[in-house]
Amino acid sequence: MKIRPSLLLVLLLARSTIAAGDPAAELASFSVFDKIDINDLAKSDVETVHGPPMGGRFLSVQSCYVAPGSPDKQMAALKNWDPTKHRELKVLLHSDLLNSPTQANFSRLKSLPDNGVVRTFVSATEKLSDELQISKDEAQKFSGTEGMAAIVEPWSEILAARTKSFVTGGTAAQPSYDHTGKSIRPNEELNSLLKQQDKIRKQFAGFLSETGIGRGAGSLKSDLYWEFLNVDDHGVVTLGASYSRPAGNFQAADVLYYASGGYYVALTLYQMWPVTADGKSATLVWRGDMISAASLEDLHGVERLGSESAMMKDISKAVTLFRSDISGR
């Protein structure tokens, strides 16, 4: 039976009205959370679950929670939150770049403590370890360097150049990790993550187009930053960009488009809805985390479930601390 154009329009309008008027229904349409109760969720801890199965070196986790206040408040809090206040999150250093990719922005590497985690980073750089994710051209900058004092300048040059490339050409302009002969392109990793998450990709299609994630330079302004992390007891320097679109459709993204080791890329997407919980203004938040890492490639069965569980635990911890910080508890 053919559907008349007028009837099709009615059906489409009805669908959009349901999505706009029922956050729980829209959440169920693209996520693994089939059914939630907003009032119950507001009284509970964050719900963190396995995302849809992903093959190869990819992994995903989804979270859902309710936070007090409006989506605008949540967006601002995400932008200004400092994870270094919580040692358990293993972020040793966080610094905003203010959209100015100069070498001076990376001089804080000198201030890192002389501990085991930092020494793994120095050692990997000195030896040009196979696990070090840089290009062949970047590897030449470290010829004969020894100790943190000696590697800060070449690392500053590399990070500044990669930041500049991102500003002008987005993730597509990032050099390959190819100094060992195996070529990994961050942009292709991001595209592969999204291709395996069809419902999420459709939900965020317009937003992703504006950001340029997985494409090139987008029209939406990004907030740039860099961090030094403890990833499985190894020091990793990383470059990231945050995006938000508060008007109408509350969506945000955090993309780690460069990492010196530990993982290739990571992407976090947020969808928020203004809701009422126990008679008070609140925000329903969905968070989707996706990661690409060489260490995941050969994991199957119990080992893969173990990695997913560890990722879920880390994300749940981060969200719990974030909610506690913004609520003043």
Topology at a glance:
Elements: H1 5-21, H2 23-30, H3 38-42, E1 47-50, E2 58-68, H4 71-80, E3 91-96, H5 116-127, H6 136-139, H7 148-169, H8 186-195, H9 198-203, H10 205-211, E4 223-231, E5 234-245, E6 250-259, E7 265-277, E8 280-292, H11 301-327
Antiparallel strand pairs: 1-2, 2-8, 3-4, 4-5, 5-6, 6-7, 7-8
Helix pairs in contact: 1-2
Structural key phrases:
alpha+beta, 329 residues, globular, 11 helices
Structure description:
The chain has 329 residues and is of the alpha+beta class. It has one domain (27-327). Helices cover 39% and strands 24% of the residues. It has helices at residues 5-21, 23-30, 38-42, 71-80, 116-127, 136-139, 148-169, 186-195, 198-203, 205-211, 301-327; strands at 47-50, 58-68, 91-96, 223-231, 234-245, 250-259, 265-277, 280-292. The chain has an eight-stranded antiparallel β-sheet, with helices on both faces. A hairpin with a 7-residue loop joins strand 1 (47-50) and strand 2 (58-68). Helix 1 crosses helix 2. The termini are far apart. The relative contact order is 0.19. The model is unreliable at 1-20 (pLDDT under 50).
Summarize the structure.
The chain is an alpha+beta fold and 329 residues long. It has eleven helices and eight strands. Helix content is 39%, strand content 24%.
